[in-house]
């Protein structure tokens, strides 16, 4: 069996490509820079140089592929130009959909995000049936939603799909913008003081990377199509997350909380400062808001249809911390 | 029994935001939208999570029949309507010469005929529940001359004018008529994307539907005649009276040209 994996140099795509390859699946990995150290290497992985934004460069890589895993995305929330998000996430996805339809791909598996559902309503966990209740809070959410709309349009033209809406992914792996929990763990292990906004009661959902990879492979193997699944793990507050990490890393860190509005004001001023000086973007108010909003979720549908099982946060964090220490 | 608010075009965008706003203020709902637009999911969610009663009707409001169907549904189920929100609308899509005849006719049906007819058909119901109110969703486009928004702007100008006159007539019955004229709203993904490509001032003037919905429902409950939501939009209305025509044309043209080629 042959599959195409986009985003193979990314956090999820890299591990997905390696996992598929280890299961004797031939993986075509589409990479913009084939010399990057992040390119996965395995005898079953064939690397193709190409860019989703140029449709012709996809055609060679997709030849003979039964399934497509589209994990590539522009995720850098600090980027202020919607063009980067739109080109990679919308135009790129459409090129890949077009090529998949032409190739007669059996299933188009799209790695999406829980954030397309927006925040949860109060403390009620998000399910696949929750309509979006608030407008798009950043360009990443918007362009991922637009990509999903494209996928639904192509399914009407005959391309079967599965969309996986993954929550906050954590665990060992390549350091990218999508791997915030690992950065937090390192920070807490190394620093003495951590400053956080005082909205630490906010609940989010955390999913272990290995569960995400397994879910991708399951939807390929199982007879499911034209469905979407929320792939998540435990729902916990930042307070509990901080305490867990602190305990597991034996950290003596002091966590100091600041008034949220003041933090936001600081971020706004910092942004004005950076823009005036022409410095590259950092944390923006919308990113801050996106981080501190309730996003608990339920993966009951995946549990039922895919027999999906989530690793507990305790176990996942433990393994992550072990791996991080091996590296450093 | 708690009275109902009826909202057309309730499955997406501004209509959806208003449905949620009414529900959060503990009002029962009758929601109307196109079939397969996510209306049933939204209705079930509101019913289960926000715990108000929700009826929903999947109808195409470009046909006159639909207004009569709504009216008889309300009668058959004995539903008292306290607020009518005429929100459903067909947006603009490009230059007049390039528009399909049927598209234009549909736009006039949905934006002009249906709200007018629905108001007429529901008037007795509203009178019986006085003090009650009608909220008509117009647009800032009803005040300005804008290329690519000819028919749309025209239909909205009708709605603004209709509402202002009607407000005077219905005052004695205890039925208020409120008109809201929003500028840009972040509703569909396509509009969100378009709004992000605009110049700085235009981008600042764009409102999120949930914020505009709060303003709209507040205005309805306070029985205001007309409201333009957002500080920058209010400034634009004043500037419109002050600036000479030639400068306004240049500014409008610049913004309109930033729109991506219509799809």
TrEMBL record, chain A:
Domain of life according to the entry: Bacteria
Gene3D superfamilies assigned: NAD(P)-binding Rossmann-like Domain
Signal peptide interval: none
Family matches, as Pfam families: Epimerase
Species assigned in the record: Aestuariibaculum suncheonense
This protein's name: NAD-dependent epimerase/dehydratase family protein
Domain NAD-dependent epimerase/dehydratase: 3-232
Family, as annotated: Belongs to the NAD(P)-dependent epimerase/dehydratase family.
Record InterPro entries: Epimerase_deHydtase, NAD(P)-bd_dom_sf
TrEMBL record, chain B:
The keyword Hydrolase is assigned to this record: no
Keyword Oxidoreductase: yes
Single annotated GO MF: oxidoreductase activity
Keywords associated with the record: Oxidoreductase
GO cellular component: membrane
PANTHER family xrefs: DEHYDROGENASE/REDUCTASE SDR FAMILY MEMBER 7B, SHORT-CHAIN DEHYDROGENASE-RELATED
Family: Belongs to the short-chain dehydrogenases/reductases (SDR) family.
Protein name per Swiss-Prot or TrEMBL: SDR family NAD(P)-dependent oxidoreductase
Source species taxonomy: Bacteria, Pseudomonadati, Bacteroidota, Flavobacteriia, Flavobacteriales
């Amino acid at each position: 069996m042959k599959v195409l994996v986009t985003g193979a140099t990314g956090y999820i795509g890299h591990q997905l490509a390696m996992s598929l390859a280890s299961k004797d699946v031939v993986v075509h990995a589409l990479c913009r820079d084939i010399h990057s150290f992040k390119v996965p290497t395995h005898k079953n992985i064939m690397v193709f140089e190409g860019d989703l934004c140029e449709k012709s460069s996809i055609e060679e890589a997709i030849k003979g592929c039964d399934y497509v895993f589209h994990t590539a995305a522009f995720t850098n929330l600090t980027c202020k130009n919607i063009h980067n998000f739109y080109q990679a996430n919308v135009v790129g996805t459409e090129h890949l959909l077009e090529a998949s339809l032409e190739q007669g791909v059996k299933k188009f598996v799209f790695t999406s995000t829980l954030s397309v559902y927006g925040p949860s309503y109060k403390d009620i966990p998000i399910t696949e049936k929750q309509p979006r209740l608030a407008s798009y809070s950043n360009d990443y959410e918007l362009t991922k939603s637009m990509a999903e709309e494209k996928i639904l349009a192509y399914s009407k033209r005959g391309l079967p799909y599965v969309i996986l809406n993954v929550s906050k992914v954590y665990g060992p792996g390549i350091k990218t913008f999508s791997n915030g929990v690992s950065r937090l763990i390192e920070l807490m292990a190394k620093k003495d003081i951590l400053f956080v906004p005082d909205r630490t009661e906010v609940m989010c959902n955390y999913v272990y990377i290995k569960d995400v990879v397994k879910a991708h492979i399951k939807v390929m193997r199982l007879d499911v199509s034209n469905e979407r699944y929320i792939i998540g793990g435990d729902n916990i507050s930042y307070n509990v997350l901080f305490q867990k990490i602190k305990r597991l890393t034996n950290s003596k860190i002091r966590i100091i909380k600041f008034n949220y509005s003041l933090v936001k004001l600081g971020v706004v001023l910092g942004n004005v400062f950076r823009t005036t000086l022409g410095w590259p973007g950092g944390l923006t108010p919308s990113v801050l808001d996106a981080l501190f909003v309730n996003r608990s979720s339920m993966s009951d549908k995946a549990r039922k249809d895919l027999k999906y099982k989530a690793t507990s946060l305790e176990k996942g964090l433990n393994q992550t911390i072990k791996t991080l220490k091996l590296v450093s | 029994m708690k009275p109902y608010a009826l909202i057309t075009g309730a499955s997406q965008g501004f209509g959806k935001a208003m449905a949620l706003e009414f529900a959060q203020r503990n009002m029962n709902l009758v929601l109307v939208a196109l079939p397969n637009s996510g209306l049933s999911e939204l209705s079930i969610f509101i019913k289960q999570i926000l715990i108000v009663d929700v009826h929903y009707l999947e109808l195409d409001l470009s046909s006159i029949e639909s207004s009569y169907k709504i009216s008889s549904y309300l009668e058959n189920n004995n539903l008292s309507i306290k607020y009518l929100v005429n929100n459903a609308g067909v947006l603009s899509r490009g230059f007049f010469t390039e528009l399909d005849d049927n598209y234009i006719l549909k736009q006039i049906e949905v934006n002009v005929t249906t709200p007018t007819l629905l108001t007429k058909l529901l008037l007795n119901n509203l009178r019986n529940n006085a003090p009650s109110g009608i909220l008509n969703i117009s647009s800032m486009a009803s005040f300005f001359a804008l290329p690519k928004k000819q028919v749309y702007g025209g239909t909205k100008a009708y709605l603004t004018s209709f509402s202002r006159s009607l407000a005077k007539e219905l005052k004695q019955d205890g039925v208020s008529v409120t008109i809201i004229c929003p500028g840009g709203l972040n509703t569909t993904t396509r509009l969100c994307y378009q709004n992000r490509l605009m110049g700085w001032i235009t981008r600042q003037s764009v409102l999120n539907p949930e914020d505009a919905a709060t303003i709209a429902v507040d205005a309805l409950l306070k029985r205001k005649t007309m409201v333009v939501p957002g500080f920058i939009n209010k400034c634009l209305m004043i500037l419109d009276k002050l600036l000479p025509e030639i400068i306004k044309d240049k500014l409008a043209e610049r913004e309109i040209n930033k729109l991506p080629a219509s799809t």
